[in-house]
Design brief:
396 residues; Spore Coat Polysaccharide Biosynthesis Protein SpsA, Chain A; 4-stranded mixed sheet; 3-stranded mixed sheet; disordered N terminus; transferase; membrane; Glyco_trans_14; BC10-like
């Protein structure tokens, strides 16, 4: 027994030679975790800066380019509730647009001239119309003085006119007034608005076929986020006219009969522009004729318009009005350059000066954008008559 005890004590004694109870130092983080984190960070940075050039159908987790955003996976936000006036307006417009077009055995183009008085280039238009009787109608809205006509095609074609003030809703009123008059003739199937300074760029048959054999309207329409675009918008147009639909464009249009009818049927959107789009209102210079039709069609039938005007104007001088062509400007090269343009270009009015461009497509085929051009001064008449003799088109 004693020997056993001695052994145990000896054992205990042996144990006492070991160090006393030790305190383990804090555990160091393994280096591999730090390396892994650094590697992932570097990978994410490189992946974000240099995303792979894959097709748009492939989704890349580190880049939104070519991928659906998270918001795209969410259910669409509920549409706002339309007012009674909007419902009534949309029903009428939809019914007109979905009705089969009226077929006429002798379809005509209505040439609608908006002018202060006489048309200084009327003789040029007389040459243009000769030999094509039965394919066109002429209407003249003279806002200041009764015109004196030199062409038989213009005699007795003046309509009841009203005063027009630049920049105000009266310009839209004039467009609607002349459009309503032209719609009274059931054979008029296409409607072209023109100024007293406009000239045709092609012979009659080319323009007739261009307009009659397409089912869209040529209404200029683009989104301008700058001060001369959305900067003119007033939220007092809500709820019917939202800023996301506010558009800008040149006032000179060419539209098919169905679109002309819905313009005349519209009271709702027109009343908003009449009340809240005018120079000086709320410190803004909203020009109704530059915004009403583009915004109206953006809301009711955006796919039915070409988004460019078939009437050319040179805005390179960056003024309130386009460049005026004088006698020394009118050359073969000028006309050739205008008729060779087949891409529509718009520039935003903000600091970015973003250039928006798209091809001018006629039934899916890229063609020249412009059939008419302005502003040609009265002194250019003789030179234009010489260049357009017989209305051949050597520059095409």
């Amino acid at each position: 027994m004693k020997s056993d005890k001695d052994w145990r004590l000896g054992s205990m004694g042996d144990m006492q030679i070991l160090p006393g109870s030790r305190h383990r130092p804090p555990m160091k983080k393994p280096m591999w975790i730090i390396v892994l984190v650094l590697f992932v960070c570097v990978f994410l940075i490189i992946a974000y800066m240099y995303p792979p050039q894959s097709s748009s159908s492939a989704c890349y987790i580190f880049s939104s380019r070519g991928c659906k955003r998270f918001s795209d996976w969410l259910p669409p936000a509920p549409a706002r509730e339309y007012t009674d006036e909007e419902i009534a307006s949309r029903v009428v417009i939809k019914d007109i647009l979905t009705s089969p077009p009226v077929v006429s055995k002798k379809s005509k183009i209505a040439f609608m001239f908006l002018s202060p008085g006489s048309l200084p280039l009327e003789k040029l238009w007389d040459n243009f119309f000769q030999g094509h009787e039965g394919k066109f109608s002429v209407y003249v809205h003279a806002s200041k003085s009764k015109p004196v006509h030199v062409s038989r095609y213009f005699v007795n074609r003046d309509i009841r006119s009203g005063q027009v003030v630049w920049g105000k809703i009266s310009m839209v009123d004039a467009e609607r007034r002349i459009l309503a008059t032209a719609l009274q003739d059931p054979d008029n199937q296409h409607f072209v608005s023109l100024s007293d300074s406009c000239v045709p760029l092609y012979h009659f048959d080319y323009i007739y076929n261009y307009l009659m054999h397409t089912n869209i309207s040529y209404v200029d329409c683009f989104k301008d986020p700058g001060p001369h675009g959305n900067g003119r918008y007033s939220d007092r147009m809500l709820p019917e006219v939202e800023v996301k639909d506010f558009r800008k464009g040149a006032q000179w249009f060419s539209m098919k009969r169905q679109h002309a009818v819905i313009v005349m049927a519209d009271c709702l959107y027109y009343s908003k522009f009449r009340a809240y789009c005018q120079p000086g209102l709320e410190g803004k210079n909203c020009i109704a004729d530059e915004h009403y039709l583009p915004t109206f069609f953006q809301i009711v039938d955006p796919g039915g318009i070409a988004n460019w005007s078939v009437t050319h104007a040179d805005w390179s001088e960056r003024k309130w009005h386009p460049k005026s062509y004088r006698d020394h400007d009118v050359t073969y090269e000028l006309l050739k350059n205008i008729t060779s343009v087949d891409v529509s270009v718009h520039v935003t009015s903000d600091e970015k000066k973003e250039v928006q461009s798209w091809p001018c497509l006629w039934n899916g085929i890229q063609k020249p954008c412009y059939l008419f051009a302005r502003k040609f001064t009265p002194e250019t008449l003789d030179k234009l008559l010489h260049l357009f003799s017989n209305y051949s088109t050597p520059w095409t």
